[in-house]
């Protein structure tokens, strides 16, 4: 089995174990895809057509408000799913952008293929539902952080969740994620470490 499919299988089995038949059906819909650094994979106002499994690289989902301010919402990196999942699953135009921050490689599956496999394999449908529920749980935790935590506490929580993030993600995106002015981020990090 190709190493990227093996990593996908490890993630899937951690969410909800599949039978060999279900895994064969599910693994058959994923295709290699690569993107250069700073390539926009999903554009706001267009429908997301793919679910991504990140093999290499770092990406982010971001949003522009009516004053053209950018907000980084989510980072994705190896051995995680990526893309604009609400647009993908609900079949509506995305409100967000999905962009590579580094050269990236993926496995990706189309909505049509995933829908077909879910319809014919109850275990796959259960795994996708549990995966989305887990993602929703993470979003709810993030809302608590945004509404209740200081910037320093948000940063500490991010480092606790993803200790390697400082090495993976350029600091200006981390600053946007926690709501700190990117020009002051170095001072901010030093004040947290002190």
Automatic annotation (TrEMBL):
It comes from the Bacteria. InterPro entries: cNMP-bd_dom_sf, RmlC-like_jellyroll. This is Transcriptional regulator, Crp/Fnr family.
């Amino acid at each position: 089995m190709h190493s990227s499919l093996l990593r996908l299988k490890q993630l899937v089995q951690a969410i909800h174990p599949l039978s060999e038949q279900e895994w064969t059906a599910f693994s058959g819909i994923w295709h290699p895809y690569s993107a250069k650094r700073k390539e926009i994979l999903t554009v706001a106002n267009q429908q997301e057509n793919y679910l991504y499994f990140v093999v290499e690289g770092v990406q982010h989902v971001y949003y522009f408000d009516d004053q053209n301010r950018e907000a980084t919402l989510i980072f994705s990196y190896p051995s995680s799913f990526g893309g604009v999942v609400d647009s993908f699953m609900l079949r509506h135009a995305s409100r967000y952008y999905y962009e590579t921050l580094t050269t990236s490689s993926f496995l990706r599956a189309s909505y049509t293929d995933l829908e077909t496999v879910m319809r014919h394999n109850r275990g796959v449908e259960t795994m996708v539902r549990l995966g989305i529920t887990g993602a929703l749980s993470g979003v709810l935790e993030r809302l608590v952080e945004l509404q209740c935590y200081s910037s320093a506490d948000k940063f500490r929580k991010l480092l606790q969740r993803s200790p390697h993030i400082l090495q993976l993600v350029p600091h200006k995106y981390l600053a946007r994620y926690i709501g700190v002015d990117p020009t002051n981020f170095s001072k901010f990090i030093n004040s947290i470490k002190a």
